[in-house]
């Protein structure tokens, strides 16, 4: 008995192979499309996180930079006040002449900086996770701890001592303990500068980037210069009033 095997017409015409090929191409296209979709989404998400990370880091570094500049001015005021104190020890007749200058210098020690960035960064787990660097977080926390100590041990302490009007007499002026504040200032400032430098290094932030960010922020915060001008006027008014009160006490008016 002769048995003949018949090839299906679909295979004879090649349409079956064509269907398989078309199916495989379609599957490949779908796979590539899915990969591109998820891959693109992952890239977009990664880039977004990197931008957020950079913005948080720059915000913190800018705050640290401003804090150091403010503290350096206060430290300079302490150093200059000590020099005046030394001049008065050598020549007490300069007391009246140096009094106003001394008061202006001491008022420069009474700094006040905003703690907004510190609160945002320290209290936000999301911000810390976005940065994703434990050492950076620890250094920033140490920097802010030193800054708080500076405010308490230098600024607030000077303010409390000034409440006793120490500069109304030569003795009070010469008894003012600048050395204690100077040593405290040097120690805390050195520590903060180290933390700041380490943060810059580990996050690969240059001085040029910080300067560019500073300029950008200053353009946004246009009212900052007006606030500084207002503060200066207020300080000047206070100094005038203090001078008037001192002179009134000398006149012994009834």
Structure summary:
The protein is an all-alpha fold and 254 residues long. Helices cover 83% and strands 0% of the residues. It starts with 8 loop residues before the first helix and ends with a helix.
Mean pLDDT: 80
Report the helical percentage. Answer: over 70%
Q: Which structural class fits the helix and strand makeup?
A: mainly alpha
| Radius of gyration using CA atoms only | 34 Å
User: Which percent range describes the beta-strand content?
Assistant: under 5%
What is the CA-CA span between the terminal residues? 147 Å
Number of strands: 0
Oligomeric state: single chain
Number of helices: 10
Taking the sheet with the most strands, its summary is: none
Listing every helix as H and every strand as E from the N terminus to the C terminus, the arrangement reads HHHHHHHHHH
Q: Uncertain regions: pLDDT < 50 for 5+ in a row? A: 3-7
Q: Tell me, briefly, the overall form.
A: elongated
Walk me through this protein's architecture.
The chain is mainly alpha-helical and 254 residues long. It has helices at 9-13, 15-90, 95-107, 116-123, 125-131, 134-162, 170-175, 178-202, 207-220, 224-251. Helix 2 (15-90) runs antiparallel to helix 8 and helix 6 packs antiparallel against helix 8. The longest helix is centred in the N-terminal third of the chain and has 76 residues, at 15-90. 15% of the residues are buried.
List the helices and strands and how they pair.
Layout: H1 9-13, H2 15-90, H3 95-107, H4 116-123, H5 125-131, H6 134-162, H7 170-175, H8 178-202, H9 207-220, H10 224-251
